[in-house]
Fold:
Amino acid sequence: MQLKEILKIISKRWWLALVVAIAAMIVAFLYSIAQPKIYETTITILGKTAKPDVGLDNTVKSEILRLPTRLKSTDLASKIDQRGHFDLGADTIAAKITATPKQDNYYLLLTVDDTDPVRAAAIANTAADIISEDILQAETLAPDDSKIFFDKTAKAPVPDRPSTPRTNLNTAAAGALGLVVGLILIFVVDFFDTSMRSQEDVERQTGLNVLGNIPAWKHNQRKMTLSGVGNLNPNSTQQKRTDEAAGDA
Structure:
């Protein structure tokens, strides 16, 4: 199929692609605004050693790898819930926190998602404080020069805009997808359309060359002709026949 034929097929039913694209955008927009707004904040917990030491550095790295599992535990999640008076339950708190270890850089990145931006920041800060306190308590019996510490680099910021849903992005993506689906639908409809409306359609369907065409029958002209025939006066015809008979006599 040549480019000219493709463009011709699209031009015949371009409105179909437009309708599908607009419908997809409307659905995506309505779906997005119906979703709850989720706010996301992050906080960094940095691991440090009492003195430069390879062994202590490895201890910090090992602890960073263990912390994500501890944050998902019921014990630590309950402690966060009780300390912050969130009254959400351990399972809900644990589900809101995502811990990403960055052991090569000696820090742990905490990400908290919540429908309340202020509460999201509070959960992140509370979690960081409890981790720091628990590790400090565990290091109580260790010599001062062999201790490791974890502390937040800064407080978690209160997000000023939701991270999801991304209404504009979802609407634009749905419009692009709808346009593609609409174009595909145009070719599907054209494939199953066997009607012949032009010379090109006849040649494509039959594989024969068109030598000529019959002009379309004009209904108005036909009506006028029939009306003219219908208006003939039978009496005038009969009079003409009588006159011709008298002349012969």
Remarks:
- Residues 54 and 60 are 10 Å apart (CA to CA).
- The chain is about 60% helix and 10% strand.
